[in-house]
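This part of the workshop introduces the protein records we will be handling. An example says more than a description, so a record of this kind follows:
>
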Amino acid sequence: MFGRLGRLVVHNPWKVIAAWLIAAIALVMFAPKLSDLTNQDQSSFLPGKYESVQAQKLAEKAFPQSTEQTALLVFKRADGKNLTEADKTRVKEITGSLGAAGVEHVSKVEAGAAKDRIALGTAYIKGEQQDKFVNEALKKLRDKAKPMVDKTDLKLGFTGSVAINVDNEDAFKKAEAIVGIVTIVLIIVLLLAIYRSPIAALLPVIMVALVSMVASPVIAIVGKATGLQVDQSLNTILIVVLFGIGTDYILFLLFRYRERLRAGDDRKEAMIVSVERVGEAIASAAGAVVIAFGAMLLATFGSFKSMGPGLAIAVIVMAIAALTLVPAVVSLIGPKVFWPSKTWQHQPKGTAFHRIGGLVGRKPVAVALVAGVVMVAFAAGALNFKADYDQLGQLPGDTESAKSMKDMQLDFAAGTLNPTQIYLKSTDGKPIDKGAAERFALSFKDVAGVGDLNEAGEDAGGSHVKVSGDGMSAEIAIVLKESPFANKALDTIAPLRDFAHAHQPEGTKAMVGGQTAAFTDIRKATNRDLSVIFPVAGLLIALVLGLLLRSVVAPWYLMLAVVLGFVSTIGATVLVFQTLAGNSGVMFMLPVMIYMFVVAIGTDYNILMVARLREEAKEGHEPRQAAALAVEHAGPSIAAAGVILAGTFASLMMAGIDMMTQMGFAVSVGICISAFVMSMFLVPSVTALIGHAAWWPGHGDRATGPVGRGDEDRKPVFAGDR
């Protein structure tokens, strides 16, 4: 099949290129934009069965203003001294003026509590968290506030959910720009070092840029048709995925093309044979990645469910391009793709990969043991894994929302940023008994982790209970001692819910809502999703491997190697960020990110190595010789792809966002483990040890004929052969 595809593309290159250009132009001009589907609100990705979502629905109906987006105004003196009574009066004047400033979508700005050094205010903005006009409203409010404060002794900063989102938005835009530039420069530099050719270095960048013009609109079309929301980090990750995986596939093809030119094939035949030989490996590798991403549709947490299919679509488009667009372009350029280097004209002797292959072939037991010990040593760190849900801690520390959050904590509990709401809903058809609800509210003061109770409002007369207009619902705001996104705060929600359910007034139902409760439910959903996605994806990937290799033996030890690589990556990340850096945990989405990239890419490298190993076996080589030759000939492309992909993901560490730093480190380390420990040493040495049994029952390693042309010269020389 891939031979026929290769001939079709090579003999009709201009038609293939024209089809891609027309598709790219049409999609850019007429398709929706991916950014239009972006959603910043993690809690909106939860399904309706969770209590925080049910509480949110009740609040939207009974307390519409409570569901408005809020920004916290944090006032302090510029000289750091205690606030004077005049300062506190000025705070009330400023908040009143801001409320009357007529900023669109801002329904109200009111002064809040004032203590020794800090005074607070709250701005209410109509709209959903993902609505772009909400962020714009806050920016306009900031602009209005600045001249009001400049002529006073006060300093004003904004924090809270909307302010965090604004800083998030700016930080992610900067991250996209940095990652995009660094990724392109890194790929060009590394490819120049590998091929010593500007054409070969620029080719992947140009090809992937064109593919991205097609992939993003296709994702947007599918998302709009299916109502799919997109997590804000997808745009940044998509850049890395397309350039990383795309460069991998192009490298696999170019390495085989150069090999066929060295074997004496003409330019067109060399490309046809390359597509035929590498096509199955690329298609299978892409299939494994798509399955890994597609399995995320099984998630209950919508952020995972939306990111997986989006990336799967991008990989499909990239794989199609690697087997059509790239061969078409290279077949036109021919050997000049490697200009001015002439290394494509001769096979180098005594390379590092020749020596590594010889080592694997001679001492597979020792190689397998050393590789396994290295991976297990890293994996030990995973025993201390803790997930971190603190979105404030993931932002750069110099953002306004982060600084204002620290200022607020000089006088107020960290939970003031996002109070936790307790809702009461009448279940007997009678209005809420406000006295019973007040006693219920006061009882929470003795619950561990609760710092304070908010008053219901300026006109509440000291009451902590807000009753809905129809009298059938009530709202109580609780301030937790810990930061609302910290694990300690999340840990208080379960006992808080147990207490609320056990002490709810007769004839009512209590529900705990708010951001902290939502992230507690996100944590629960995430843990459930990981327990479902991992085994399902593993079985499906093993099936792909089985179909590719016609074996029921090899897929299992290949998947075990990938699982070990996954755990090793988590362990290395925990060692660096928790043990050495002293963080309370690592980003809660990190296991999924490592799963998507390390498991999927690790399987890619395994497929390429084992496919080449089987190919060498079919040429008549015994298991150890086949393993040695596979490392010698597939090793350079895997190593080059691993370095480029690891470097591409490492560029995320320059984004200035903690979650991106952790993701960049984890995935780049995981790819290095996959490429240089697992695929280069562990998998070929284990395959050599298992021997012909690795291919049972299909026996895909059976020689299809006599040793081919020039293959005698390619046999590795073992110590006993001299």
Q: What stands out?
A: The chain has a mean pLDDT of 83.
